[in-house]
Design brief:
heteropentamer, A mainly alpha (172), B mainly alpha (103), C mainly alpha (485), D mainly alpha (645), E mainly alpha (511), B: 103 residues, mainly alpha, 76% helix, 0% strand, elongated, E: 511 residues, globular
Chain lengths: 172, 103, 485, 645, 511
């Protein structure tokens, strides 16, 4: 039981707990916030898993940018806390939760079983160097160049799309 | 094993988070909360990727996560824009109330 | 690890050129929109030029894999590129008059269409699941927006929401599947799956199923179809015309790529049975529910679900000829379905309202050409001989019977009988009902006329002279490694 | 040079074609010329062949014209045959037909429309064509052509007044009932072909006569079928019902088709097939019994009828019964002899009735007539001659033929005596009812309306001349067949027809003639019976004005009504066949077609639609449900695929 | 041009109408008269071109003539492969005769969408001719289905009040059958490929395949169902009365005249030679269904109040007879059946035409709406009477010869009682047809409006007269036709017998 192990477990536990809160909470603002916490916890896990750079991204981009954006929108639309189901169609809830349990059972069962056995890479990277940003960057601009270009288009599309949808009609 | 952390634990956590995300997506009615749950699902995937990558001893996992984060950001932008656009019509983002198109 | 930073060869450039052209055309259109709005009349032309250019480069591109074996240029990708290009061209052609009628002639539409098209083409060409995933997301993002493009129309925005939520949900599963496969194969390259016994581990099966579900969602295979009718109904018709064809073809190719690599020992029986179940469910549900539809776009959506059921037969049969058959089927489906949507786009006066089938009454006399093409497309979808649709089914069922899937073929046949029920219903309304609307449908715009003519020509052309297409498709299919013959 | 036989049918056919196509345009006189011209021409042509034939050695002539149907081992030629039998038929068919054509000129005079007039003569010619084909045919199939042809013409001519419902109905009835007979004929032909491998007379009869043992087993059935055909055509019980109704046609038609020629086709056919019939004795017996019964049955009905033509119709049926009786007891020549004589006097009777009808302005009810003797003498005398003939009073024609029939039935083994007795009784009956109508029509006081009274007049020459000719014939025609007692060669017709009755190997055709004494006795008896019948009728109707019969009728009303209603056979058939069929047809349609078959189909279609209507509501419009279905689908797959591993 | 007609006569015949239809597309929709005239002209030209077939047809030759073969989908050995034998020759001529007849009749009666009507009709003719000459099963299937679409439109657009239901029923019924046949055809080709390593859909090649009992049974049933629906064999007939009743006159003529025959034709051409054992095994069923059809059709016809419906059911009865002839499978009965197809085409065609003549004037088909009109419309009456007599098989007209041959041939087959039972049709047909004649043309005139009826028009008269002339001709000189049928029938029987032996041989050889 090393310190790293302990930290990971704590962070994981935190992530799961706050994720749970995010889901059960009726108040959207509260669930955003709990998700922020969950993401921080996840970032911690990433660090434990030798991916400090990603952890940083996780904090900056996800917890920072994205979820803040969520908050903005929430404020903008000031939607209150979700009303309890009046329509009384419990089938969605019942079936949904049952299904989720089954799925979790399958997935986790698979992981507990043989699912976790993975082949070692041909030339495994020295663990301490795994998270090395320079190496990551080099990889990004060499093997993953195409992905990089593609994502640029994706972002552009998202940008333009968001603009199209959200701008006020000045024409009319 | 990644350091002292067995891969299976990492995967179990990721699986748990993924399932929680699904639960949220299925049980919440507020579009934004649904979308949050979906973000959680993607993060669960990220965790699995990082775990695998570390266990395999390759950086590819991290790279993938890098892209996933970018995609998630883009998705968020578009998604929220859609919510806003829709909200202009319906004054709500409770998906139970949004069913013009059906049958 | 090589010291030099950027690895970008001429080969890579040549390979990626088509996508670049698309991306740049999109940007160009936006720039024109921003700085010379008077030129908006030329957007469509520009977009067409862009597609044409990308096709040109696609045909020029030297074969083989690039970007470190992550990007494919082969007879398969070229053929699919043509397929997608054709879809894009048709969409653009019908978009111009459509947007003019609705006063929404914005450059963004074309730009997003082109970028989405880019994403789809990445899906067909990527040899790396991450590329595929990025392509998928690009497509999705672009079309989430296009679905909600008519911000002034509640239905459109709702379509956007529904497509977005379900789409994001679906791609989360896809992503998780990618993660699992990455873990199991130690990389994201598809070729990495081609390892003996790879498909034995549950994690891999799990991942493959997640992919199947994720892409099945894009193909709108039942039970992952539910988004399609609503989205089609609310989405601008030209975008639907593209969305209802191109991504489906690309998704099938992706699945074929992945499975052909992963199942080098042949597809496990239970996996296959699962796919068969999807096929049957999709065909039956699509056809039966389509019988009950009142809105032409929803009807076409369900018909599309059923048609994808037929395609899934090919996936279940899983082999060179099956893939070739599926490709032929997709070309037929492109001509018929896009043609149908083109006709619908040109036959309805008010785009922002629903499109009840009943409004088509009397169109046979008021808009003879559009109506005739619509009828032709429907007959083709129904698989009446001398149309492309028949040829598609012909090869599909041949493949199925060849591998001994008799029951599946029988179900397919039974379904095409049901399908005739609703296709003929539309034809009958077109030609045998007195008009209900006072004013005739809008006069046919040249672009629409061209689109319709192209579809009709393709339907009859493929229907009467299918051998070339079949030859090409088989050569294309041969580029994938299949277990056994 | 001799005229080829095929010309004979063709002449009237041409007449038919001309009148049918152009008749309406060129008016009555043209039609008359063509119609009667054709009839006359064909008569001349016929006799140009008959006279040499009769003079010569009566050798059978077969003249093939052209192959008609040739498939596999079936090869039917259009070929014609002239032998004593067909010669006999030919002789009177053409001649009587010609006379009746002439008569029709006068009779149809009052037909207003040229179209109708042309139609009438065209049909008459067509009938002549069919009848000649029937008579001259060399193969069963060709005979069947004529057979159906005459049926068609009877249908067309009975329904000549198409705008009168009863006429239209009668026509249809005639055709359908005949078709029932034809059904038998067809099966008979199939049997013949299956047995003999051919349908040509010469071949079939040769084979049958050569190896009777080999074929006789099949022949019972075949002959039965053939006889069913004959029953239809020659109006035998139970298929006689069409003939009385057929009187709805114009009287010349009744005379020509329903008395003289067509209805005797059955007898002709049976005689033609005598070789086959003689090999099927049980069928022969059946024929005899049916004939005998029909004679009696129809005779009985005739007694109580008041419609002049109806009485004649029933008497025709009864006389046809006699003919079959003759055939049944093996006296085919005698049967044919009666055909000949009957043709003469029955035609005469009908034409006479036609004149009366003409005079009474189409009223046929004998109760309205009376005392016409003075006003229309020619009609009366000819009618009387014919009546005496049919009643069998020597030396009139009927006497000889009928007496021959009675004699041959008397000498027949088995039931012979019984048949003879019934025949004899019927003879008396015949005399009675025939003289009954004579009395009621021509004697006593006129009982019709005023205008009828002064409208009554003798018919024009075109009508009376044929009457006279036929009257004479009904006197002399019988002398062709004087019984043996008048000397060896007294009987002309018997030897003339003898060659038709081919000897059958192993069957001895020769039967010993009756002793003369017996023969005289039989004659005496039959004459006595006939005479008493006449006398009774004269007493009751001419003298006492019908009080006695009225008393009898009053005494047993039920029986009288039954007879007067023709034993209500039509009603019986209605209940047994007609209405059940109509009911079955309707039920089959409504139940099997509409309810069951279409019901099943529409139901299945409806179920599919219903499923669609139900399933579409799974599309709730709520995106969460969509996500759920998606997820459930995934789980199902996982459980099925991964769960298994 | 000369060469074209010499070597590619069949192709010219098949595609000329389609070409005509394309040209019609160029006409403006308003050019009604032109469209009419053009369509008739094309169909007449077609007729003229088809006559050389009759002349140049070599009676001595038993196999197919006027052969043409061009690769179509070479990868699967599918080829444009056409030819003609006696059976198809007659049906082709029937088609080329009935099409102008129908168009001629429609000349004065179709006002709505004349161009569309003409186009549909010409395409229909291409479809019919194509499926009559196709010797490649894929090709056959294509033409077979192509016929469906124009007929669907003809019924659906120019039909009567219940035309929608009728057209839908017609389409679905036929589809239901042919889809199974489609699978069967594919399976055959696959088996051929498996056996020989070569793809082929050509009839001659597939003919060489031998199957185990069960497979052959299934395949045969798949084929037989498709054809039985088209014929139609009881109890698959219920689409026919509706289709006939609702279709416009011209449609009914073609439907009864040609389309139904294609069912029988397909059975003779494909089902029998390909699966002789199964066919022989099921022949008794076929015969029984035929007998039922004869009697049932006749009975139900008698119960009808609607002239067209009555004639439609009479078709069920007549084709039942044809089916019996095929079931009996003697040379005579087969010949009779084929001749009877032609006869039925002529007589029923004429009946529908003349019913149409009345309908166009009075706009009702109810028997009770007529009565006593013989005096008003003598010519129509006469023609109708002749058609009736032909249809009830009066000797001297065409109907009799066919009927007689079928019945006699059946009688000489082991199934004597079929003939005995079916011969009763002689009586029943007389009952319903004469009832029709009586109630329509005879009887007292009860409806004043009938007094104003006008007699047949020249165009109508020509159309009907052609048919009547043919009836008489075939009735008097049946040999002209029989000579052309006989060789093909004998050939067919030889082929079937040969394959039966071969098949049994291979089956015994197989372990």
């Amino acid at each position: 039981m090393t310190a790293g192990r302990l930290l990971f477990d704590l962070a994981a536990a935190g992530a799961i707990i706050f994720a749970g809160l995010m889901v059960v909470g009726r108040n959207p603002v509260r669930s955003v916030l709990s998700l922020v916490v969950a993401f921080f916890a996840l970032a911690a896990c990433f660090v434990m898993l030798l991916a400090p750079f990603i952890a940083a991204l996780q904090v900056i981009v996800y917890a920072g940018a994205i979820l803040v954006l969520f908050l903005f929108v929430l404020m903008l639309l000031n939607v209150g806390r979700e009303q309890p189901e009046k329509t009384g169609r419990p089938i969605q809830t019942v079936l949904g939760s049952a299904a989720v349990l089954v799925f979790a059972g399958l997935l986790l069962g698979m992981f507990r079983g043989s699912g976790a056995h993975v082949p070692m890479a041909a030339d495994p990277v020295e663990p301490s160097l795994l998270g090395d940003p320079a190496a990551l960057a080099r990889l990004l601009y060499s093997d993953y160049l195409l992905h990089f270009e593609a994502v640029s288009v994706l972002l552009l599309a998202a940008l333009v799309g968001a603009f199209v949808l959200a701008r006020r009609e000045h024409a009319s | 094993m990644i350091g002292s952390i067995p891969l299976s634990d990492v995967l179990l956590v990721s699986g748990a988070l993924f399932s929680i995300g699904i639960a949220g997506a299925l049980l919440r009615r507020n579009a934004i909360q649904i979308f949050l749950s979906i973000e959680l699902m993607m993060n669960a995937a990220n965790l699995a990727l990082i775990g695998y990558g570390a266990a395999l001893g390759t950086r590819e996992g991290q790279i993938v996560v890098f892209f996933v984060i970018a995609i998630a950001a883009a998705e968020a932008a578009v998604g929220l824009a859609i919510f806003v656009a829709l909200f202009r019509h319906t004054e709500t983002i409770d998906v139970n109330k949004i069913n013009l198109l059906k049958w | 690890m090589t010291p030099d930073l950027v690895k970008f060869t001429h080969a890579d450039l040549a390979a990626i050129a088509p996508e670049m052209v698309l991306a740049l055309t999109g940007c160009l259109i936006l720039l024109v929109e921003a700085f010379a709005p008077r030129l908006r009349r030329w957007f469509a032309t520009l977009a067409l030029a862009g597609v044409a250019g990308s096709l040109y480069f696609l045909l020029e591109a030297p074969g083989g894999t690039t970007f470190g074996g992550r990007f494919d240029t082969s007879s398969l990708t070229v053929l699919m590129g043509l397929f997608l290009g054709a879809a894009a061209v048709l969409a653009i052609l019908m978009a111009k008059p459509y947007l003019e009628r609705t006063g929404e002639e914005k450059g963004e539409f074309y730009a997003l269409l082109l970028w989405g098209h880019l994403g789809v083409s990445l899906m067909t060409r990527g040899l790396d699941l991450v590329i595929v995933f990025i392509g998928l997301e690009t497509l999705s993002l672009a079309f989430y927006v296009l679905a909600g493009f008519f911000r002034s129309v509640a239905a459109s925005s709702e379509a956007g929401l529904k497509y977005f939520l379900t789409g994001a949900f679906g791609s989360a599963f896809t992503l998780y599947g990618v993660a699992l496969l990455f873990g199991a194969s130690g990389g994201t390259k598809i070729e990495g799956f081609a390892r003996p016994g790879f498909a034995d581990s549950p994690a891999v099966i799990f991942g493959l199923l997640l992919l199947l579900v994720g892409f099945g969602f894009k193909m709108s295979i039942a039970p992952f179809h539910a988004w399609a009718p609503d989205v089609y109904q609310g989405m601008p018709t030209p975008a639907v015309a593209y969305l209802s064809v191109a991504p489906k073809g690309a998704s099938l190719i992706v699945l074929y790529r992945v499975f052909s690599a992963a199942f080098e020992g042949g597809m496990p029986d239970r996996f296959r049975t699962g796919i068969i179940a999807l096929a049957i469910l999709s065909m039956t549900l699509g056809n039966v529910v389509a019988l009950a539809q009142r809105d032409i776009k929803r009807l076409l959506a369900y018909s599309g679900i059923a048609q994808m059921g037929y395609v899934t037969i090919s996936l279940a049969v899983f082999g060179k000829d099956a893939l070739a058959a599926a490709i032929v089927f997709f070309f037929a489906y492109l001509a018929s379905n896009a043609g149908a949507f083109a006709a619908v786009a040109s036959l309805y006066r008010d785009e922002t309202k629903p499109h009840p089938v009943a409004l088509l009454a009397g169109a046979g006399r008021r808009a003879p050409f559009a109506a005739a093409v619509l009828a032709l497309c429907l007959f083709s979808l129904a698989g009446i001989p001398a149309t492309a649709g028949f040829i598609g089914k012909f090869f599909l069922f041949k493949a199925a019977l060849e591998k001994g899937f008799y029951a599946l073929a029988l179900v397919g046949i039974a379904n095409s009988l049901i399908s005739i029920g609703y296709y003929l219903k539309v034809v009958y309304i077109l030609y045998m009902r007195e008009p209900v609307e006072a004013d005739a449908p809008p006069s046919l715009a040249p672009a629409d006329r061209l689109a319709l003519a192209l579809c009709a020509a393709a339907i009859l052309g493929f229907g009467i002279f299918p051998s070339t297409l079949w030859e090409v498709a088989r050569r294309a299919a041969a580029t994938l490694p299949f277990a056994g013959p | 040079m001799t005229l080829p036989l095929w010309v004979l049918p063709v002449i009237p056919l041409v007449g038919f074609a001309i009148n049918g196509l152009l008749g309406t345009r060129f008016g009555k006189s043209f039609v008359t010329a063509v119609g009667c011209g054709a009839a006359g021409l064909v008569t001349l042509a016929a006799y140009s062949r008959l006279i040499p034939f009769a003079r010569g050695d009566h050798a059978t002539v077969v003249e093939p014209v052209v192959s008609w149907i040739a498939v596999a081992n079936l090869s039917i030629d259009i070929s014609f045959r002239l032998d004593p039998l067909s010669a006999l038929m030919l002789s009177f068919v053409t001649f009587v037909a010609f006379l009746i054509h002439i008569y029709a000129i006068g009779y149809m005079h009052h037909e207003t429309s040229d179209a109708g007039y042309a139609r009438f003569f065209a049909y008459l010619n067509l009938f002549l064509f069919a009848m000649l084909t029937l008579v001259l045919a060399e193969s069963f199939l060709l005979m069947f052509v004529g057979w159906e042809g005459v049926g068609l013409c009877s249908y067309l001519l009975v329904g000549y007044y198409f705008d009168r419902e009863y006429a239209a109905l009668a026509g249809r009835k005639a055709f359908v009932v005949n078709r029932i007979g034809d059904y038998g004929f067809l099966l008979g032909m199939f049997g013949i072909f299956a047995t003999f491998g051919s349908l040509n007379y010469s071949e079939v009869f040769r084979k049958a006569a050569e190896q009777p043992a080999q074929f006789s087993p099949a022949l019972a059935a075949i002959c039965l079928c053939l006889f069913i055909g004959a029953m239809g055509k020659s109006a035998q019980v139970p298929l006689y019902v069409w003939l009385p109704d057929a009187m709805a046609g114009p009287t010349p038609v009744s005379a020509l088709i329903h008395a003289a020629t067509m209805v005797t086709a059955g007898v002709y056919m049976v005689t033609r097939c005598n070789v086959l019939f003689r090999l099927a004795p049980e069928v022969m017996l059946f024929v005899a019994v049916i004939g005998c019964f029909t004679a009696l049955f129809a005779g009985t009905i005739a007694v109580a009828q008041n419609d002049l033509k109806k009485v004649l119709a029933y008497s025709t049926i009864s006389q046809l019964g006699y003919m079959f009786l003759a055939c049944g007891v093996g006296a085919f020549t005698v049967g044919m002899f009666h055909v000949l004589t009957h043709a003469c006097f029955k035609a005469c009777l009908f034409l006479g009735a036609g004149c009366v009808m003409h005079a009474m302005s189409d009223d046929l009810d004998i109760r309205h007539m009376g005392g016409l003797k003075a006003k229309m003498p020619i009609t009366f005398w000819t009618f009387l001659a014919a009546t005496l003939a049919i009643s069998g009073i020597p030396p009139f024609a009927g006497f000889f033929s009928k007496d021959a029939i009675l004699a041959s039935s008397f000498e027949a083994p088995g039931l012979g005596k019984l048949l003879w007795f019934v025949g004899l009784f019927t003879a008396g009956l015949t005399a009675f009812y025939m003289y009954r109508i004579v009395s009621l029509t021509f004697f006593g006081q006129f009982r019709g309306t005023k205008e009828q009274a002064h409208h009554v007049h003798e018919a024009p020459a075109t009508m009376t001349v044929p009457l006279v000719v036929l009257g004479l014939l009904s006197l002399v025609a019988g002398w062709l067949g004087l019984p043996a007692v008048f000397g060896e060669h007294a009987n002309v017709i018997g030897p003339f027809l003898a060659p038709v009755i081919a000897p059958i190997a192993g069957h001895d055709a020769a039967h010993e003639a009756l002793p003369h004494a017996t023969e005289w006795l039989l004659m005496a008896v039959s004459v006595a019976v006939a005479a008493s019948g006449l006398y009774l009728a004269y007493q009751w109707y001419a003298k006492q004005g019908g009080r006695a019969p009225a008393r009898i009728a009053a005494a047993m009303p039920g029986a009288y009504a039954l007879v007067a209603d023709k034993f209500r056979i039509d009603e019986l058939y209605g209940v047994l066949f007609v209405r059940p069929y109509a009911w079955a047809a309707h039920t089959l349609w409504k139940v099997v077609d509409v309810l069951i078959i279409d019901g099943l189909l529409n139901a299945s279609a409806f179920l599919v639609e219903l499923a669609g209507d139900f399933l579409r509501f799974l599309q709730t419009g709520n995106v969460r449900n969509y996500a759920l279905t998606f997820f459930l689908g995934l789980i199902a797959l996982l459980l099925f695929v991964v769960g298994a591993i | 041009m000369q060469r074209l007609l010499a070597d590619h006569l069949l192709s010219v015949l098949v595609f000329l109408p389609a070409a005509g239809a394309l040209l019609l597309l160029l006409l403006p929709r308003s050019a009604v008269g032109a469209a009419r005239a053009f369509a008739i002209a094309v169909s007449l030209l077609e007729l003229a071109l088809s006559l050389p077939l009759w002349v140049r047809f070599d009676l001595a030759q038993q196999g197919f003539q006027f052969r043409e073969k061009i690769a179509w989908i070479p990868q699967l050995g599918i080829s444009y492969n056409v030819g003609l034998d006696g059976i198809s020759l007659l049906l082709v001529l029937l088609t080329t005769i009935l099409t102008p007849v129908s168009l001629l009749f429609s000349y004065s009666h179709v006002e709505k969408e004349v161009r569309g009507f003409s186009i549909a009709f010409l395409i229909l003719e291409t479809g019919m001719l194509g499926s009559l000459v196709a010797l490649d099963l894929a090709l056959f299937y294509v033409f077979w289905e192509v016929m469906l679409v124009p007929m669907y439109f003809i019924i659906g657009i120019w039909g009567g009040p219940r035309r929608i239901y009728a057209s839908m029923k017609f389409f679905l019924f036929t589809m239901a059958g042919s889809l199974l046949m489609f699978l069967a055809i594919l399976y055959l080709a696959i088996r051929h490929q498996a056996a020989t390593g070569v793809w082929s859909f050509a009839f001659e090649d597939l003919y060489r395949l031998a199957f185990t009992g069960r497979t052959e049974t299934l395949l045969f049933l798949a084929f037989a169902l498709a054809f039985a629906i088209k014929v139609p064999v009881f109890p698959l007939h219920t689409w026919l009365p509706d289709a006939h009743t609702e279709a416009p006159t011209a449609g009914s003529i073609i439907l009864a005249g040609v389309l139904l025959k294609l069912g029988v034709y397909g059975y003779l051409r494909f089902a029998l030679p390909l699966f002789p054992d199964a066919a022989m095994h099921f022949a008794p069923w076929l015969g029984v269904l035929g007998v039922i059809g004869v009697i049932y059709g006749a009975a139900v016809a008698y119960a009808q109040h609607d002239m067209k419906r009555l004639v439609a059911y009479s078709s069920v009865s007549h084709l039942g007879l044809v089916v019996i002839g095929i079931g009996a499978f003697t040379t005579m009965s087969l010949t009779g059946s084929i001749l009877q197809m032609i006869n039925h085409g002529l007589s029923t065609g004429a009946l529908f035409l003349l019913v149409g003549v009345l309908y166009e004037r009075r706009h009702t088909r109810e028997l009770d709406a007529y009565g006593g009109i013989a005096g008003i419309v003598p010519v129509t009456t006469t023609l109708f009477l002749i058609a009736t007599l032909s249809s009830i098989g009066l000797p001297g007209l065409n109907g009799f010869v066919g009927e007689f041959l079928i019945l006699l041939g059946t009688w000489t087959s082991p199934h004597r009682w079929w003939a005995a039972a079916a011969a009763s049709g002689v009586i029943l047909s007389a009952i319903y047809m004469l009832t029709l004649v009586q109630r329509v043309f005879w009887n007292p005139m009860t409806h004043e409006e009938n007094k104003k009826l006008t007699d047949i028009r020249p165009t109508e008269f020509i159309a009907a007269a052609v048919l009547v002339v043919l009836m008489v001709w075939i009735g008097v000189r049946p040999n002209d036709v029989l000579d052309r049928i006989r060789p093909s029938v004998e050939h067919l029987q030889k082929v079937v017998a040969a394959k039966q032996q071969a098949a049994t041989y291979t089956r015994n050889a197989a372990p």
